[in-house]
Design goal:
heterodimer; A: about 280 residues; alpha/beta; Rossmann fold; two-stranded antiparallel ribbon; 10 strands; about 30% helix; B: about 575 residues; 4 domains; 7-stranded mixed sheet; about 20% strand; binds thiamine diphosphate; binds iron/sulfur cluster
Chain lengths: ~280, ~575
């Protein structure tokens, strides 16, 4: 049985009070409760404050390029589909630089768990707008306020029939831990968009701002109803729902590849003598 | 016997099928065959051709002089009539071209009419043409009939019979009507293998244990992906068509990190998108093989044509400083063995290795007696299973004497594997201190480089042993250079140096090629680009400057006559 100590990584270089800390805590607690050993999982990340996440835990890690988390996670998962592969990203990282990859990961339905630390701002590069910044928000780089419409990742994911779509909040760690566990237990690609206040650069969407608006989705809500999920996904403003917004049972990509039906790619032997036979094709 | 056949027509008319079938017949007959293709970037229409040269002696390039032109469109006649050799013939069907040609070297064969009459379908016109070429050459149809049977085995007896009858009709018609045909073919010998550059790279990858190929289609690299997918089931390979080239290289890196041999491929524009991933491979010390199939640029340039203008791009692209290896095979055979070497070196040193090819090599077919599988090197350099479990401690980037830390497979043991695109410590975690940075650069770059350099083979030297004239080149110009040397050797003390292992630049200790160059009176660097990129590299790496350059940048490959003419003008 793993303990919290097993997951203890480097000391975080985040600003004291940053929402990332509670996500880290919820994540570690979830891993321990799920009895996942550090060597049994690989956390892939890109670049940003969120991208540093895997260094603050202990497990297999690939901390790659800005926006390229999902392709790397896909490559790892296809090579070893017995490995729990978790992708951690920032909103800029995943919805901005890596938007194309997100769309296609959802289409593939590769069994990768994506957790987006959505602080509605670029933290690491000091406060520029992100795709989820609300229209009108003024930053150093957006002196006239954000002019583009705010991206709604939840609605986007429901539209793409993403296998599991949820929203969490860094200010409700118990609920977030539950969501992380649900996502890991779900078979299929999961997007968990986590509202994470950046106390340094986002002076609008603060802990307090969220606390006034966020509510846990009602127990009677049926996340398997896609039309209802669309409606739920559009709620933003005075009331912001957190919880599982949509899920389905689409078959996962890995199961559709005959090559890895019996053994993961990484454990398949290679027999060079067969090449002789293939050479005959060229005569 | 040294004949060239050109099959010309619009895209969609089956030019390639005719060309491939005839090449297969000639290679099965035991002849040496060389083919090259010229096509436009369109699916239907335009003008394309497939050129085949065959002989009982070795052939490795195309000639300008054509002996038989099979014309399916007027452009085949307008553009290529003047290429006809002294006894050459043009066959065409006046009913489809809607024109009658009166000159004595034209032979009007009613392809369509014969197809309908004997094959019961006008689609058989192509088979009639193939049969007609046989008739003109005085070749019997045995090999063709066998190929038809093999090809259509699944389509049933009727299709087989229709094709055979059509071939016979074309054959007999040509024998009766081509009174001027004076071709004679050598006796058949042992069948040879016939293989194109892209297939050879794909085959080389499979033979090296490649298990993961991710790419986004782009001519002329697509053929590599297609070949590997055709064998995916048999060999247990995952071929993933990524959403873009950025994803392709990152997926391949993920797969490689997880423990399998991985490769990606593209052409210039797609490779441009992979550049950041190239640096990522270097920083995380993740092995990867990348095929860069050049086509003329800039931007999308000439999508289906050929050029060797991405050498400098391959050399200097990506940010930061790190070791990389670049191979540029000159033949399908070299492509096969160098792809294997690429995988070996990528894994051994945990670095990116690039295979530079181009449309000309990608699509051209060569014949061989065999590829020698015993020359294939397959060593699994990874730390896995019990070997990994028995280790007390594991650090992904631990400092070692030679800079290489074995790459452990994730999940095979309790040891954790950590990689980072930021500078990191021995374990793989982010650091910012100056001292570790220097040690890591030393590990990745300076310690590995001398070892990698030792692996590089010198250029191939061929021709006169004390040459006054030396021609040099790299990659796909190998064949044409060699044939030109053969032709000129009777009158000149000429030799060639062909570079296929380009970077790190070959050392001179195994063979002092610099002395050969310095001792010669005239040295010429031949490249399929406008600026002489290899000549520049030579100067940068060795200080040596070639006397003369021959550059061709019209999107077409060198032919023997063209290159001879250019060299002749420089040496006279
Ligand atoms: C290709 C590339 N472009 C730009 C950057 C610079 N950069 C680093 S992090 C970042 C944005 C981070 O924002 P987000 O993903 O929202 O993460 P956060 O820091 O807010 O957690 C940018 C633009 C980079 N590292 N790579
Ligand atoms: S800048 Fe914002 S996101 Fe980054 S650590 Fe500080 S509070 Fe957190």
């Amino acid at each position: 049985m793993p303990s919290l100590d097993d997951y203890k990584g480097q000391d975080p270089a985040w600003c004291p009070g940053c929402g990332n800390f509670s996500i880290l805590k919820a994540f570690k607690d979830a891993m321990v409760e799920l009895s996942v050993e550090p060597f049994q999982l690989t956390v892939v990340s890109g670049i940003g404050q969120a991208g540093k996440f895997p260094h603050y835990i202990r497990c297999n890690t690939f901390n790659g390029l800005h926006g390229r988390t999902l392709p790397v996670a896909t490559g790892i998962r296809l090579s070893n589909h017995e490995m729990l592969v978790i992708a951690v990203a920032g909103d800029g990282d995943c919805y901005g630089e890596g938007g194309n990859h997100l769309i296609h990961a959802m289409r593939r339905n590769i069994n990768v768990k994506l957790f987006v630390h959505d602080n509605q701002i670029y933290g690491l590069t000091k406060g520029q707008a992100s795709p989820t910044s609300m229209e009108g928000i003024i930053t150093k780089n957006q002196p006239f306020g954000v002019l583009s419409e705010q991206l709604n990742p939840i609605a986007l994911a429901v539209a793409l029939d993403c296998s599991f779509v949820a929203r969490g909040f860094a200010g409700d760690t118990e609920h977030l831990k539950w969501l992380i566990k649900e996502a890991i237990n779900h078979k299929g690609f999961t997007l968990v968009d986590i509202l994470q206040p950046c106390i340094t650069f986002n002076k609008v969407n603060t802990f307090q701002w969220y606390r006034q608006r966020v509510y846990r989705i009602e127990a009677e809500y049926n996340p398997e109803d896609r039309i209802e999920a669309f409606k739920k996904s559009l709620e933003w403003g005075d009331r912001i729902p957190i919880g599982i917004i949509y899920k389905n049972n689409r078959p996962i990509y890995e199961e559709k590849i005959p090559v890895i039906k019996d053994i993961p790619l990484v454990r398949q032997p290679f027999d060079i003598t067969r090449i002789e036979k293939t050479l005959k094709d060229f005569y | 016997m040294d004949y060239s056949i050109k099959i010309g027509g619009e895209a969609g008319q089956g030019i390639q099928t005719i060309g491939e079938t005839l090449s297969k017949v000639f290679s099965s007959a035991g002849y040496h065959v060389f083919t090259h293709q010229d096509y436009e970037s369109r699916i239907r229409g335009g003008h394309n051709f497939f050129q085949i040269r065959f002989s009982e002696k070795s052939v490795m390039a195309s000639r300008d002089k054509i002996d038989i032109i099979v014309a399916f469109d007027k452009a085949s006649i307008e553009q290529h009539e003047r290429e006809l050799s002294e006894y050459g013939q043009i066959i065409y069907d006046s009913s489809t071209l809607k024109q009658k040609y009166e000159k004595s070297y034209f032979l009007d064969i009613p392809f369509t009419e014969l197809a309908v009459k004997h094959g019961k379908n006008k689609i058989m016109a192509n088979t009639v043409a193939i049969g007609a070429v046989h008739g003109m050459l005085g070749m019997e149809l045995d090999i063709l009939i066998k190929i038809i049977k093999d090809t259509f085995i699944k389509k049933g007896e009727d299709i087989i019979k229709a094709n055979i009858d059509s071939a016979i009709a074309g054959h007999d018609y040509a024998i009766k009507q081509c009174l001027k045909c004076s071709f004679a073919t050598a006796p058949f010998t042992k069948p040879k293998m016939l293989i194109a550059g892209n297939d050879a790279i794909g085959l080389g990858a499979i033979a090296s244990g490649c298990k993961f190929y991710a790419a986004y289609p782009m001519t002329p690299s697509t053929g590599i992906m297609l070949y590997i997918s055709s064998k995916a089931k048999e060999y247990g390979i995952i071929v993933e068509q990524a959403e873009d080239e950025i994803s392709a290289i990152n997926m391949a890196l993920g797969a490689s990190f997880a423990g399998v041999r991985a490769m990606t491929g593209s052409s210039g524009g797609g490779f441009a998108l992979m550049v950041e991933g190239l640096s990522l491979a270097a920083m995380t010390e993740t092995p990867i093989v990348i095929a860069l199939a050049q086509r003329p640029g800039p931007a999308t340039g000439f999508p289906t044509r050929t050029e060797q203008a991405e050498l400098q791009f391959a050399l200097y692209t990506a940010h930061g400083e790190f070791p990389r290896v670049i191979f540029a095979p000159g033949t399908p055979e070299q492509a096969f063995y160098l792809t294997n070497k690429a995988f070996d070196i990528a894994e051994k040193y945990q670095i990116p290795v690039l295979i530079l090819t181009d449309q000309y090599l990608a699509d051209s077919q060569w014949t061989y007696d065999n590829f020698d599988i015993s020359k294939i090197k397959y060593i699994d350099y990874r730390l896995r299973g019990d070997a990994l479990k028995s280790l007390k401690e594991y650090k992904r980037h631990a400092f070692t004497n030679n800079g290489i830390t074995p790459l452990a497979v994730l999940g095979d043991s309790k040891h954790l594997v950590v990689a980072d695109s930021d500078e990191h410590d021995e374990e793989g975690h982010i650091i910012e201190d100056a001292e570790t940075r220097v040690k890591m650069v030393d590990k990745r770059l300076f310690k590995k480089l001398p070892l990698i350099h030792k692996e590089i083979e010198p250029p191939l030297f061929y021709g006169h042993q004390n040459p006054e004239i030396v021609i040099s080149g790299w990659g796909s110009t190998y064949g044409v250079m060699k044939e030109v040397v053969d032709e000129l050797l009777s009158n000149w003390d000429i030799a060639m140096l062909h570079f296929s292992e380009i970077y790190p630049f070959p050392p001179t200790n195994k063979f002092n090629y610099l002395k050969v160059l310095k001792d010669a009176k005239i040295t010429i660097c031949i490249e399929n680009n406008a600026t002489g990129q290899f000549a520049k590299l030579m100067r940068t790496e060795t200080g040596y400057s070639f006397n003369q350059l021959i550059n061709k940048y019209d999107g077409r490959p060198f032919t023997i006559e063209f290159l001879m003419g250019e060299i002749d003008a420089l040496i006279r």
